[in-house]
Specification:
GNAT_dom; alpha+beta; 4 helices; seven-stranded mixed sheet; globular; Ribosomal_N-acetyltransferase; Aminopeptidase; protein-N-terminal-alanine acetyltransferase activity
Amino acid sequence: MLTQPTLRAWRPGDAATVLAAFSAPEMDRQADRPVDSLAAASRWIERRAADREAGTAYAFAVVDEADVPLGNVAVSAVNRVHGTAWVSYWTSLAARGRGTATAGLRALTDWAFTDLRLHRLELGHRTNNPASCAVARAAGFTVEGLQREKLVYGGVRYDVELHARLRGAGGAAR
């Protein structure tokens, strides 16, 4: 179990790790463009750096003690007027079930509330993804509602459960 994750910016040398992660089933849903080659993985990393530079989104590699990326946590759609943003996360196939996503999400949440001074973080997951729900709850995100048929993949519509966490709300699941 990963209890003390390190978050760091994605690096060009991480392209092979990113490519491997995106080759797992259903990971294509985690990217706006296909990540199906080393060049595409490098472009994915470059877009994360450009977003960071623009101040619109911040993606971090969740790394182990050997600095090997195990997953990604990100805060995007940053609205500084309202102090809100959207968070997301994914892990490599090998890191699943080890607490990586939860530990990474907790660290990202602390960072977003402290460094970005945000007030509210939101996330959503398909209702047929109980593992993602467990991560959100374990990181202190409260269920706020259901968005019916919000997403479509392969011609099938999926309901999305919305979660949020407020600054100062603590890390205990509710």
